[in-house]
Write a structure and sequence with these properties.
The complex is a heterodimer of chains A (about 475) and B (about 200). By secondary structure, chain A is an all-alpha fold. Chain A has one domain. Helix content of chain A is about 75%, strand content about 0%. Chain A has a two-stranded antiparallel ribbon with strand order 1-2. Chain A is globular and about 70 Å long. Chain B has one domain: NADH-ubiquinone/plastoquinone oxidoreductase chain 6, subunit NuoJ (Four Helix Bundle (Hemerythrin (Met), subunit A)). The longest helix of chain B is centred in the N-terminal third of the chain and has 26 residues. The radius of gyration of chain B is 28 Å and the shape is flat. Classes of the chains: A mainly alpha (about 475), B mainly alpha (about 200). At the A-B interface, helix 1, helix 4, helix 5 and helix 17 of A face helix 8 and helix 9 of B.
Chain lengths: ~475, ~200
């Protein structure tokens, strides 16, 4: 491979890292919130363009990273959601008393980690990418540290994430002890030749625990609602979108390339986890009166659905996973975006309680429309993008004759309908006569509002005309480097 | 060699248990030193003297000294002298010393059998090997590690800020939005239209 091509593939990562350095130097020189946001957004937008342009040169592999369709799709989704988070953070932190600029520095570092993670094909880059993704999140979640809940969520995530990293490392050590390889493709060869063996299976299982924690799959989901609720809105949004996309991309590559994951035993574990996540996530979401907690449990359920892709892991699987990731990210960005626009870092904890949204329609009809669209899409109603995703998953499950999982998706969607619609009903109820929390009057013409509106428009547009999205996921699923 | 590996591994596990189980931070730190030394010996037995030396220099040396300093400084007070005499009782140091003695015996018995190359199974990882790997094909990892340290530093410096941040206005603080399923804040005076039965049912 020629150097210029390789540099082209690395360009998004380099741009994000360079932007982080620029922001750091800018903070050292003079603090300015607007300029910091402008630099961050510019850098991320350039990286997004470079990421899209890098489709031309794939597939490329280096010893550590694989630039294949999965990495490209993951990179585009990570950069787009980081961009949305940066813009929304501008609205959120505008009146924040105290240092606001570090948030963007942490956001950029985490995005770089996400890019590296989504492209990793080596256990070393997998681990460092994952740590680089999680480490800044501790700071982002605890950013409003004078707020008890924010600090609590940061510390909770720190401790539990460290435990998960320990599991991941132990799993890697066992796999290495079994095979003497760190590269995923070489791991695959050794495990196929000699059989996975007890240590190999144990290693793969422990890695699954570590990554399952980051994806908040049942039974490793316990941190999710608390962290989502307590963390500042933009940090929770990043956690729900970019962070999960990166981990899911690497898990998909791991499952597609390492046969230890396709063995009978681990496959059973995967589908039990999937079924448990679908049902437990949805059932726990039923009783939530806090929108952020509700979205947390809903993300548990959605990643339960997505685990179906890992269970099947052939044919249509990568494409279905890509489509579902796109739908999930769009709807989640829109829903969290509305929460962020209604909240502000100065007003104490975020406007999570559903009662804040009561009668929102009578005050902010368009914001309500965005939230409604997001909820309908998460519920999987036709004409929204969520329906296309669900359709793909069910088609995949039926084709592979995974009836339990298909039944789980259908039951989960039926339960989910109740709580998503409950949120929508709340939005349209009569106003209780209290205007405690509200978006600023000119929210729609500001950057954060545009992001939220754009996400909602995309949810509808891709729901009605999904061809571009399917083509994208198809192209991504077609090129998986070993 | 295998026996040495298992002995030092056992010492590491026991010492780490001592760190976790100890209610007194200074005792815990003592165990931690032994644990790190044991891990270094594990590295030596596995044929990675460079990693072992780094473990001793960086962890057992630099970082542990900082730990001990901080713990000592936090314990300054009137009762400090009394405390220190208490710490010097045998039951404080006997555990770590025993484990350290096991490590020492292991090391001596290893050195007794000369020609260390023969007892190490597998290749030897040298500083040169680690360097050429890290700054050759794995350069990306060094860069990612640098970003990771930057993020950790920024996180620590931000969360550790003591400059008072303007406290959130109490007026904007609402009822705690926890699991309590309440349709309206308790401060809210009861109004006819606000507490319509339909609303309560849905919420």
């Amino acid at each position: 491979m020629q150097m210029p091509t390789l540099a082209f593939a690395y360009l998004p990562l380099i741009l994000v890292a360079a932007t982080a350095i620029t922001v750091m130097l800018g903070i050292a020189w003079r603090r300015d919130h607007r300029v910091t946001v402008a630099v961050t957004v510019l850098g991320l937008a350039l990286a997004l363009v470079a990421q899209v342009a890098a489709w031309q040169v794939i597939p490329l592999t280096t010893p550590l990273l694989a630039f294949d369709g999965l990495a490209m799709l993951g990179g585009v989704l990570i950069l787009a959601s980081t961009l949305a988070c940066a813009v929304l953070a501008h609205a959120y932190f505008e009146t924040f008393q105290g240092a606001r600029e570090e948030f963007y520095l942490l956001l950029l570092c985490a995005a770089a980690g996400g890019l590296a993670l989504a492209a990793s094909r080596h256990l070393a880059s997998l681990f460092l990418g994952l740590e680089l993704l999680s480490m800044p999140l501790y700071g982002m979640l605890a950013y409003a540290f004078h707020e008890r809940r924010s600090l609590e969520s940061g510390i909770k995530y720190l401790i539990l994430s460290a435990a998960a990293s320990a599991f991941l490392l132990f799993g890697m050590a066992l796999l290495y002890a079994q095979t003497g390889e760190l590269e995923l493709s070489a791991l695959m060869v050794s495990l196929t030749d000699g059989g996975a063996g007890a240590w190999g299976l144990a290693g793969a299982g422990m890695m699954l625990v570590g990554l399952g924690f980051k994806l908040s799959v049942v039974p490793f989901h316990l941190w999710t609602p608390d962290v989502y609720e307590g963390g500042p809105g933009p940090a929770a949004t990043f956690l729900a979108t970019a962070s999960k996309v990166a981990v899911f991309a690497v898990l998909l590559r791991l499952v597609l390339t390492a046969p230890a994951f396709q063995g009978e035993w681990l496959n059973t574990v995967l589908w039990v986890l999937a079924l448990a996540s679908m049902l437990v996530g949805n059932l726990l979401a039923l009783t939530q009166s806090n929108l952020k907690r509700l979205l947390g449990y809903s993300s548990v359920a959605h990643f339960g659905y997505m685990l179906l892709v890992l269970v099947v892991a052939d044919g249509l699987a990568a494409e279905a996973g890509g489509v579902y990731l796109i739908t999930y990210v769009l709807a989640t960005l829109a829903a969290f975006g509305v929460v962020i626009l209604v909240s502000s870092a100065t007003d104490g904890e975020d406007a999570g309680g559903l009662h804040y949204y009561r009668g929102l329609f009578w005050r902010r009809p368009f914001l309500t429309a965005v939230m409604t669209v997001a909820m309908l899409s998460l519920a999987g109603i036709p004409a929204t993008v969520g329906f296309i995703g669900k359709f793909y998953l069910i088609a995949l499950g039926v084709e592979a004759e995974r009836w339990w999982l298909v039944a789980g998706i259908i039951a989960g969607s039926a339960i989910g309908l109740y709580y998503y619609l409950r949120v929508i009903v709340t939005l349209f109820l009569a106003e209780p006569g209290m205007h405690r929390r509200d978006a600023s009057p000119d929210w729609a013409v500001r950057a954060g509002g545009l992001v939220v509106l754009g996400a909602a428009v995309l949810v509808i547009a891709l729901g009605l005309y999904p061809a571009p999205m399917i083509a994208l996921a198809n192209a991504a699923g077609g090129i998986i480097a070993p | 060699m295998e026996l040495a590996f298992y002995l030092s591994g056992l010492a590491a596990v026991l010492a780490t248990l001592g760190v976790i189980a100890n209610p007194n931070p200074v005792h815990g730190v003592l165990y931690l030193v032994v644990s790190l030394l044991a891990v270094a010996l594990v590295f030596f037995t596995l044929g990675a003297p460079f990693a072992g030396a780094l473990e001793i220099i960086v962890y057992a040396g630099a970082i542990m000294v900082l730990f001990v300093f901080v713990v000592m400084m936090l314990n300054l007070g009137q009762a400090a002298a009394e405390q220190e005499r208490l710490w010097l009782q045998p039951r404080t140091w006997i555990g770590p010393s025993l484990l350290a003695a096991v490590l020492l015996l292991t090391l001596i018995s290893l050195l007794w059998r000369d020609d260390i190359q023969r007892v190490i199974e597998g290749g030897e990882l040298t500083a040169k090997g680690a360097g050429t790997l890290l700054y050759g094909p794995w350069l990306l990892l060094v860069e990612l590690g640098a970003l990771l340290l930057l993020a950790a530093l920024v996180t620590a410096s931000h969360v550790g800020r003591t400059v008072p941040v303007a406290a959130p206005k109490p007026a904007a603080r609402d009822m705690p939005t926890g699991d309590a399923d309440q349709p309206q804040p308790p401060q809210q005076p009861a109004r006819g239209e606000s507490s319509s039965p339909a609303g309560k049912e849905v919420l």
